[in-house]
Task: structure prediction
Amino acid sequence: MATVARFFDPPEGHYFLFGPRGTGKSTWLRALHEGALWVDLLSPDIERRLRARPERLRELVQGTGAGTIVVNEVQRAPELLTVVHQLIEERCGARFVLTGSSARKLRRSGVDLLAGRAVVRSLHPFMAAELGAGFDLERTLEEGLLPVVWDARIPRDTLRSYASLYVKEEVQAEALVRDLGGFHRFLEAISFSQASVLNLAAVARECQVPRKTAEGYLGVLEDLLLAFRVPVFDRRAQRRTTVQPKLFFSDVGVFRALRPAGPLDRPAEIASAALEGLVAQHLRACLEYSGNEGSLSFWRTRAGSEVDFVLYGPQAFCAIEVKHTAEVRTRDLRSLKAFGEEYPEASLRFLYRGTGTLQIDRIRCIPCAEYLAALDPRLPLA
Result:
């Protein structure tokens, strides 16, 4: 597969580049910085030597004279941040790019040492517009948009091993949890929370661990950049809103790999959660890549009205409802209409699996595949 042009726009100075494993950080950076000095901490030998003697990084930088230094998976040797900080302060003339797929060890080990000297950016799974004509909604809902899966010879086999890779190489290797069996049960239980209001007490009961343990497991999942929460939109709320966030996996393929499917599971329910999750990861990526101050949230009243997503910021105020349906039904538009009554300034969008763009009162109904293919962080969100 040819290198796909990404929407990510690198900063001019030093920066951290975070993203889950398999999002193509290394591939993208190698193409961008062809003459860079690579310090790849995924190599056990390099990791061992630099953790034992972090000052060796200084020797490498001074010895090669490279203009750009890429430290891959820096969370594996956070001690190197002290050396990087010193070299930046000394104006050594090199630009540092530090990648990571886990924020936990860096947060505990001094990422603040570089505060103000290296900006933080994220690389997400592919967006539909990055793939262009190669984007296939049906395939995406099954396999997701992680480059490592998209480019695999047998994508579904790669996807099935993806979660196991994280458990083995990140969770187990770094001793992030004590009970791996409990964590495996948690991964399955939390998959039922995709696109739902988060109820950690119920998840804890399902995987037979204390609630506090389940909360810690979710923190591990978020630190590994595999999941994120979407908060409630409550600005100028006239109706009483709920307080719990919704949960999404960072890639719909990871959700499908973890979510059990059997005779007692309704395919439509899984497909609906997958579609909403796909829209969530696109909106999140688009907001981060655009660099504007917009936020992603959802709206849910205590009375039960719910709108899946609310984009709010200087350039956009838009409410979006996502339905896995081929037809636009009146009852599907009720929550959007209620939101529009409370917030007349907002534009209203209804995404569905049918064909043809419709205008029903204030609500613009758009086929989901078309909406995703048109999402471009360089353009205004609408």
In short: The CA atoms of residues 24 and 209 lie 35 Å apart. Residues 267-290 form the longest helix (24 residues). The chain has two domains: 15-122, 128-374. The mean pLDDT is 89.
